[in-house]
Amino acid sequence: RAHIRFDGVGKEYPDGTVAVGNLDLDVAQHELLTLVGPSGSGKSTLLRMVNRLVEPTSGRILVDGEDIADLDAVQLRRGIGYVIQDVGLFPHRTVAQNIATVPGLLGWDRHRTRERVAELLTLVRLEPDVHGPRYPHELSGGQRQRVGVARALATNPSVMLMDEPFGAVDPEGRRALQTEFRRIHDDLGTTVLMVTHDIDEAVLLGDRVAVFSQGGKLEQLATPAHLLAR
Ligand code: ADP
Ligand code: ADP
After folding, report:
1. Which of 40, 66, 76, 111 is the most exposed place for a label (fewest CB within 10 A)?
2. Candidates 92, 93, 94: which one to mutate for ligand 2, based on the most atoms within 8 Å of Cβ?
3. Which residues contact 110 (CB under 8 A, 6 or more apart)?
4. For a pocket test of ligand 2, which of 93, 97, 101, 115 has the largest count of ligand atoms closer than 8 A to its C-beta?
5. Which residues make Cβ contacts (< 8 Å) with residue 107, sequence separation at least 6?
6. Distance from the CA of 96 to the center of ligand 2, in angstroms?
7. Residues 6+ positions from 109 with CB-CB distance below 8 Å
8. Going by CA atoms, what residue is nearest to atom 7 of ligand 2?
9. Whose CA is nearest to atom 4 of ligand 2?
10. Would the CB of 75 count as within 6 Å of ligand 1?
11. What is the pLDDT of residue 173?
């Protein structure tokens, strides 16, 4: 069955802007779905409805068969990784402290947290002893995005929402990050919704690609092979 199901989901902002139309979409367990489309086609709104930063004005979203409107929003968010462009790392906390944010909120003991932080830094190909004690401004843009990914993975979420995760990284660094992320995804089997404006990235990383148009209308949903064959 679907891991995430959008069932007639729509979002109209109070000013009358229809950001997402009447969306029906199933995302499979372990799928990496990329979302593309022009600016303003509702992609960010769609992601933000899954972690309830935005509430839909129609329809429902089911995760593991449960209507997320019935869940506690804070609880829900802790089980969902969220990575945005430019990450939003806390500037006055070290890399390790940033990654340890949610484990800290959950009251993990120091030893477990330390092990997890080291494991995550290694996963994203950073060195715990070198990069862990640094502050975000002491890293490159690409390294900061790696930290953002590590932080989002801290509690082993089953769902990851990524909004232009590599958008601010230079082309060379971006390619490396894409490869790394595909590997991490294959290893962990997280279900991922990834917004990107980079069609090459969408095709390279996506198991399927969802193409949106103005008004948040799903125009096309296809595998990369199918898209490229057209
Ligand atoms: P995308 O991520 O594809 O660029 P968005 O989801 O950011 O699209 O925006 C979709 C539409 O909703 C746009 O027309 C945008 O201006 C509008 N929108 C986004 N956020 C708000 C908001 N908080 N209030 C009103 N309109 C908004
Ligand atoms: P606190 O903020 O509680 O004083 P620290 O500043 O030492 O603790 O770091 C916050 C968390 O990050 C701690 O749980 C610690 O185990 C972990 N941590 C700190 N530095 C590292 C590191 N270099 N590698 C792995 N984990 C670290």
Report:
1. 111
2. 94
3. none
4. 97
5. none
6. 6
7. none
8. 97
9. 97
10. no
11. 83
- Tell me which residue has tokens 């802790």: 78
Contact 174, 182 (CB under 8 A): no
Report helix, strand or coil for 177: helix
Tokens matching residue 197: 């404006």
Query: Hey, what are 39's tokens?
Result: 């600016």
- Predicted confidence at residue 147, as pLDDT, reads 93
Residues having CB within 6 Å of any atom of ligand 2 = 96-97, 100, 110, 113-114, 117-118, 128-129, 132-133
Note the pLDDT tens digit of each residue in 124-164. 889 999 999 999 999 988 899 899 999 989 888 999 999 99
pTM score of the predicted model? 0.89
Q: How far is the CA of 12 from the centre of ligand 1 (A)?
A: 10
Look at residue 150 in the predicted model and tell me its pLDDT: 92
- Mean pLDDT for each 10-residue chunk of the chain (230 residues)? 94 96 96 96 97 97 96 90 85 96 89 94 93 95 90 90 88 86 90 94 95 95 88
- Please report the ipTM that was assigned to this predicted complex: 0.74
Residue with tokens 């969902």: 80
Q: Could you tell me the distance, in angstroms and rounded to a whole number, from the CA of residue 41 to the centre of ligand 1?
A: 7
